[in-house]
Each structure stands twice: as C-alpha cells, then as structure tokens.
Design brief:
Length: 255
C-alpha cells in the first residue's frame, strides 16, 4: 500500500491519519504535499469542530522517509525547497487551522513526528511512545523553522537534548516536561482521544477559532495588537447569546 495521508470526518470531528506501512509512517515527499492539501480542505469546512492527528498501525510518525533523501538532500536548492516549501508547507497548514488539534501519539514519534505533534494543541500519548530527533546521526541539522517550532513546544532544554545528544525520551519524561498533556496505557489512548474530541466538539466553535487566533499570535511572538480591532465583534453573535443564556437558564448550551 502506498504512503499517504488519509482523512475522514464524523460528527464534526475530522481525523487525519498518517500512513506509510512498513516504515512506521515516516513522511514521504508526497505525504507532506498531501498533508497541506488535507489541511487546506479542512479549513474550508464550517461544520467541523475538532481535528485528530494520528498514525496508523500503532505508531505516530518515525520521521522522514530516508529512502527518498538521496534524490534531493545533496543539492542546496533542492534541499531548501524540500524544507521551506514541502515540509514547512505541511506544518504551516496544520498551524493555520483554526480548529483544536489533538495528537494521538503511539509508538515512534521521531523527527517529523515531533514536528507534527508540535503543531497540535492537545497531545495524548501511550506509555510506550518514544520521542526524539536523532538526525545528528544522519549528518544534518533540523531546519530553522522546524527547530523554532519544536523548541517552542518542547522547551529549549529538551530540544537541545534531542538535537545535540540525539536523545530519545519516553512519554513519562515528556509529560513531566510539559510537552504531553496525558500519558495512558497504550490500549487506552484511542478511546481517550475520542472522548476528548467529542467533549471539545460540544464546546463553542466560534470561541475555539478565536482562541486559536490569539494563541497563534502569542506563539509567533508578534503579540495580539493586530487582533484588537475585531476582538469583540462576537458580542451580538448567536453563539455568545446561547452560551450566556444557557448558563442563566441552567441548561446545556446548544452550539
């Protein structure tokens, strides 16, 4: 079966599945392109509330598909195009989604897998999940935009350990360091992600999109000044009135 990025939707929840059988879902060039296309398609769907990102076959993503590297890594222009357009195109499309993103992390989460997980808002992992970016063993550094993303989410100390020591860390360690939100027995991960996604899908979608805009501005370091002119335009929205009205009426809101 060819490597691909699949997606499906169900009840306001979209599920992106990374698939590269036999390679622990390592990202091929085609998969980076497909990831961008999937995210751009999901961005147009006003009916969606939450996106789950997962790998198939018990692993999240083991990094890049090294079998393809000989075709482009040894030329400066093609290497730049790979990282700045193909890889960053997929990652930036994930980051641009104004929907809550939940990472379902099982098994290997290496290199590109850590980068994709770093784009997600909530990260749930199995007890046996392993994290790292041991690319120093392959003779190359992490690309600057990708390193900025990973360092921001992992923390500089952990990013240094992964990149300079080629360290592979376990899920409890990354839970303690704040990268993960929950670590569970492997068999419970899928059900927990589904439970969280269903819960989040019941919350106010307009508020989630606006919160994502604010959080993206904070993460970029640009601040929120650009958001202020329209920050309170939701005042007379149906969603705002429903949330307050439901609370006062002591009933669940219907968003």
């Amino acid at each position: 079966m060819a490597a691909c990025v699949r997606w499906r939707t169900d009840g306001g929840i979209a599920r992106i599945a990374l698939s590269n059988p036999g390679k622990f879902n390592a990202m091929s060039c085609a998969m980076w392109h497909e990831l961008r296309q999937v995210c751009e398609a999901l961005a147009q769907r006003q009916d969606l509330r939450v996106v789950v990102v997962a790998g198939e076959g018990g692993h999240f993503c083991a990094g890049g598909d090294i079998a393809e590297y000989g075709a482009f890594r040894f030329d400066t222009d093609s290497l730049r195009d790979f990282h700045e357009n193909l890889v960053w195109g997929g990652l930036s499309a994930l980051l641009a989604l104004e929907l809550p993103l939940v990472a379902q992390i099982e098994g290997n989460c290496m290199g590109a897998g850590v980068e994709i997980a770093s784009c997600c808002d909530i990260r749930v992992a199995g007890q046996s999940a392993r994290f790292g970016a041991p690319i120093a063993k392959l003779g190359f550094p992490m690309a600057p935009r990708e390193a900025e993303l990973v360092a921001r989410e992992l923390g500089l100390a952990t990013a240094r350990q992964m990149l300079l020591e080629a360290a592979v860390l376990d899920a409890p360690t990354l839970l303690a360091r704040g990268f993960l939100h929950t670590v569970l027995p492997d068999a419970d991960v899928c059900a927990e992600v589904h439970r969280r996604a269903q819960h989040m899908a019941q919350l106010a979608p307009q508020a989630a999109r606006q919160n994502k805009q604010t959080l993206r501005a904070l993460a970029s370091g640009l601040g929120v000044a650009a958001l202020l002119p329209s920050a309170y335009d939701y005042a007379d929205s149906a969603e705002h009135r429903e949330g307050i009205g439901a609370f006062l009426a002591k009933r669940p809101p219907r968003f």
